[in-house]
């Protein structure tokens, strides 16, 4: 796959223009009040703009976009805190279907994914040590914290294959029965669900166990890299907003940004932003490298970015004073999005452990940019 | 003769023991539960809580005996707040008993003392603090709210902000400008405003934890009887500084950090084995910082009692306490994992169980979000460091 910087830049610009016109703070405020936690109108726009076809193959009318283009879009998602299931459906769900779906499955689902009439969610995390299991085409067990699982039309569920052991993926239609959905919001307002399957009809996705594991690892790394890009978009806004505020907020007769102590802290925020940008790019590039190297770089990036984003968000709140913790200022919304982002698609500790383990196996990674 | 510090230590230990048996024997189960789960307490809960404390003689234990107090030493005051917080008790609302009460008994008229002090002790009046303004947060010299004397009244115009629980308040103690053009600190006066006065409007400021703690208070041509001025015109700054001195002994942050750390340890014990090592090291570091905070705080309090303080004690407790507390809260949210981001503000009001994790998961998240403000209010961390740099280090 060729990495195409120019296409990515064009996509970033056009997406940023759309979001600036249609997803301002007040417009987003209205979206937060929607029962689904996202805007159906914006979702249709994303389909028209081609965002939902980014990960689809060209043969199916998609753009077969590279990780840079996906990252460019996710950066805009983070910079405007878009609430729609772009990551869950158009990147993770679609990515799994592209890699593992049979011709029939792809033919059935791709058109709906491209035009936005179908939304996918990926259900992986489980509450305890009794894993989901499929026997005779029926799925039983529980999944938790399924991002946008509250609105998904189809679920991709990881579960043990009752006949052969081993982990497989399954397509489940939550409306087909025997699926109990507990819907809730995450701290940042995005929708999620806990799922209880009691013999729900489940269709195997991907025939070969080894291929499933490989594809799953690839797509989860794509998701982690996309989450990094999303964090980058949010971090850039927080750094810029904070620097603006330091220039206009006056106390003791002068702009607070004239205090050297605050200047230095702003510089540290900016340096973190630049590191987040560099690591995000490295993670995107590593998606095309061999698995061990990919794991080292992507997990290193996600772990570092979790900490960096937390620091930037904390500092942005602190330097805005009381305003920083209010609903009425966007800063607290970025704070909460970054908090959720850090926990999804692998926590800081999980990625750190994977980074260390990959290093122990002799993978350097990250140097080849 | 017994050393006063030794005696204070003994009395503080006795007080702490009394608080523990109060918690076991007297504290109502519903208040314990709400508080333990960090659920939203309403006004009735707080009033009930403050009255329970007053029944024990503790709400105003730090007041002089002639006003109904027990003349607690600084050490007893500190230990009182610390012990309550260690047990996970509700917040001791400070605006009446801790802030305005002492200003009134120190500087108020006999009429003001008779009128206000008994009702502060019993929380028959709920007080709020009108200090900050949109242009005057850390810098109170930038106050703009004006009180113009007209006959027997002051006519007050201006806007206060970050006023905690103004939505419940009967009274507002307020810093206002009573003179124009004068040196800022000589133009500020300390005025008591009845919240039911025409022209007082309270507007909520929702915070990111989804709860209504703070407000804007708009004052438009509010007529305040001149008898509600505390002390002399232009001396408000002096009284405000006296009040801040009273605020110095904030033992609650030590107890809160201890309580949160204990909860973090029990959460970690249930965490996945893979993350326990890393978590263990992180908790160990936090415990070490707690020990430093605890010993430094108690030694600082004793220095203040001996009059041997260097002046940075209060800042040290506030800075180290709030920063440590925030780091413990972050570690708790991290330990909850996916349950640490699954949360809906509405659920906290409905007292419904969280969608994921232990019963107090929502409360832990709420606490983490709201306590980002702990390093902002009551003298931001930046201001605390300025105080030490200028006042102690002479920089």
Automatic annotation (TrEMBL), chain A:
What this protein is called in its record is Acyl-CoA dehydrogenase
Q: Look up the signal peptide feature and give its range.
A: none
Q: Which residues cross the membrane?
A: none
Q: Which controlled-vocabulary keywords does the entry list?
A: FAD, Flavoprotein, Oxidoreductase
In terms of superkingdom, the source organism counts as Bacteria
A Gene Ontology molecular function term for this protein is: acyl-CoA dehydrogenase activity
Cofactor(s) named in the record: FAD
Q: Where is the Acyl-CoA dehydrogenase/oxidase C-terminal domain?
A: 218-349
Acyl-CoA dehydrogenase/oxidase N-terminal domain residues are 7-116
Task: Give the family this protein belongs to, as stated in its UniProt record.
Answer: Belongs to the acyl-CoA dehydrogenase family.
Q: Which organism is it from?
A: Aromatoleum tolulyticum
Automatic annotation (TrEMBL), chain B:
InterPro entries on file? Acyl-CoA_Oxase/DH_mid-dom (IPR006091), Acyl-CoA_Oxase/DH_mid-dom_sf (IPR046373), AcylCo_DH-like_C (IPR036250), AcylCo_DH/oxidase_C (IPR009075), AcylCoA_DH/ox_N (IPR013786), AcylCoA_DH/ox_N_sf (IPR037069), AcylCoA_DH/oxidase_NM_dom_sf (IPR009100), Mycobact_Acyl-CoA_DH (IPR052161)
Q: Does the keyword Oxidoreductase apply?
A: yes
Give every Acyl-CoA dehydrogenase/oxidase N-terminal domain span.
40-122
Required co-factor(s) are: FAD
Q: Keyword annotations for this protein?
A: FAD, Flavoprotein, Oxidoreductase
A GO MF annotation of the entry reads:
flavin adenine dinucleotide binding
Q: Which residues form the Acyl-CoA dehydrogenase/oxidase C-terminal domain?
A: 234-392
> Single GO cellular component annotation?
plasma membrane
| Domain Acyl-CoA oxidase/dehydrogenase middle residue range list | 128-220
Task: Please list every transmembrane segment annotated in the UniProt record, as residue ranges.
Answer: none
Q: Which family does it belong to?
A: Belongs to the acyl-CoA dehydrogenase family.
Protein name, entry field: Acyl-CoA dehydrogenase
Question: What species does this protein belong to?
Answer: Aromatoleum tolulyticum
């Amino acid at each position: 796959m060729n990495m195409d910087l120019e296409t990515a830049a064009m996509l970033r610009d056009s997406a940023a223009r759309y979001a600036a016109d249609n997803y301002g703070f007040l417009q987003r405020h209205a979206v937060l009040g929607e029962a689904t936690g996202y805007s159906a109108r914006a979702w249709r726009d994303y389909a028209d703009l081609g965002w939902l076809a980014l990960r689809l193959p060209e043969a199916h009318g998609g753009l077969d976009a590279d990780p840079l283009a996906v990252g460019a879009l996710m950066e805009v998602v983070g910079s405007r805190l878009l609430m729609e299931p772009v990551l869950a459906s158009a990147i993770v769900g679609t990515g799994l279907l592209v890699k593992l779906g049979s011709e029939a499955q792809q033919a059935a689902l791709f058109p709906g994914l491209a035009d936005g009439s179908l939304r996918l969610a990926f259900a992986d995390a489980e509450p305890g040590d009794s894993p989901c299991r499929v026997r005779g085409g029926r799925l039983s067990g529980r999944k938790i914290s399924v991002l946008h699982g509250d609105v998904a039309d189809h679920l991709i569920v990881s579960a043990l294959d009752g006949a052969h052991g081993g982990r497989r993926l399954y397509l489940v239609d939550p409306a087909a029965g025997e699926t109990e959905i507990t819907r809730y919001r995450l701290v940042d307002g995005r929708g999620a669900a806990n799922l209880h399957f009691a013999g729900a009809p489940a269709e195997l996705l991907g025939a070969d166990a080894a291929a499933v594991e490989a594809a799953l690892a690839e797509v989860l790394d794509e998701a982690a890299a996309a989450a990094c890009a999303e964090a980058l978009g949010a971090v850039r806004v927080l750094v810029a907003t904070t620097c603006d505020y330091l220039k206009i907020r006056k106390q003791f007769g002068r702009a607070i940004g004239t205090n050297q102590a605050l200047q230095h802290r702003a510089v540290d925020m900016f340096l973190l932003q630049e590191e987040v940008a560099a690591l995000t790019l490295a993670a995107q590039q590593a998606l095309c490298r061999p698995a061990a190297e990919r794991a080292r770089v992507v997990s290193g990036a996600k772990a570092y970015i979790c900490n960096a984003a937390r620091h930037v968000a904390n500092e942005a709140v602190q330097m805005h004073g009381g305003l920083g913790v209010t609903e009425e200022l966007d800063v607290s919304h970025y704070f909460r999005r970054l908090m959720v982002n850090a926990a999804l698609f692998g926590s800081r500790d999980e990625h750190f452990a994977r980074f260390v383990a990959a290093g122990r196996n002799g993978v350097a990674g990250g140097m080849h940019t | 003769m017994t050393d006063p510090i030794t005696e204070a230590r003994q009395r503080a230990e006795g007080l702490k023991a009394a608080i523990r048996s109060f918690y076991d024997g007297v504290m109502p189960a519903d208040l314990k539960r709400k508080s333990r789960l960090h659920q939203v307490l309403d006004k009735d809960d707080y009033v009930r809580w403050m009255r329970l404390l007053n029944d024990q003689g503790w709400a105003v234990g730090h007041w002089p005996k002639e006003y109904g107090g027990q003349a607690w030493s600084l050490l007893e005051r500190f230990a009182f707040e610390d012990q309550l917080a260690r047990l996970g008790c509700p917040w001791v609302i400070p605006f009446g008993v801790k802030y305005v009460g002492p200003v009134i008994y120190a500087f108020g008229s006999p009429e003001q003392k008779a009128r206000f002090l008994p009702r502060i002790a019993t929380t028959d009046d709920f007080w709020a603090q009108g200090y900050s303004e949109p242009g005057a947060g850390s810098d109170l010299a930038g106050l703009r709210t004006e009180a113009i004397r007209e006959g027997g009244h002051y006519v007050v115009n201006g806007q206060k902000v970050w006023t905690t629980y103004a939505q419940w308040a009967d009274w507002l103690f307020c810093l206002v400008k009573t003179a124009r053009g004068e040196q800022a600190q000589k133009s500020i006066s300390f005025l008591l405003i009845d919240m039911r006065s025409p022209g007082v409007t309270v507007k909520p400021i929702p915070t990111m934890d989804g709860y209504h703690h703070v407000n804007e208070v708009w004052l438009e041509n509010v007529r305040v009887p001149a008898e509600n001025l505390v002390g002399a015109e232009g001396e408000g700054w002096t009284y405000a500084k006296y009040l801040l001195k009273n605020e110095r002994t904030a033992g609650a942050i030590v107890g809160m950090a201890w309580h949160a750390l204990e909860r973090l340890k029990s959460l970690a014990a249930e965490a996945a084995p893979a993350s326990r090592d890393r978590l263990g090291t992180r908790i160990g570091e936090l415990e070490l910082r707690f020990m430093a905070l605890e010993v430094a705080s108690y030694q600082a309090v004793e220095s203040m009692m001996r009059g041997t303080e260097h002046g940075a004690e209060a800042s040290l407790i506030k800075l180290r306490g709030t920063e440590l507390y925030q780091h413990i809260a972050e570690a708790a949210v991290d330990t909850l994992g996916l349950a640490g981001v699954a949360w809906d503000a509405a659920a906290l009001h409905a007292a419904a169980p969280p969608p994921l994790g232990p019963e107090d998961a929502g409360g832990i998240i709420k606490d983490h979000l709201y306590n980002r403000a702990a390093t902002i209010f009551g003298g931001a961390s930046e201001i605390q460091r300025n105080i030490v740099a200028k006042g102690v280090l002479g920089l």
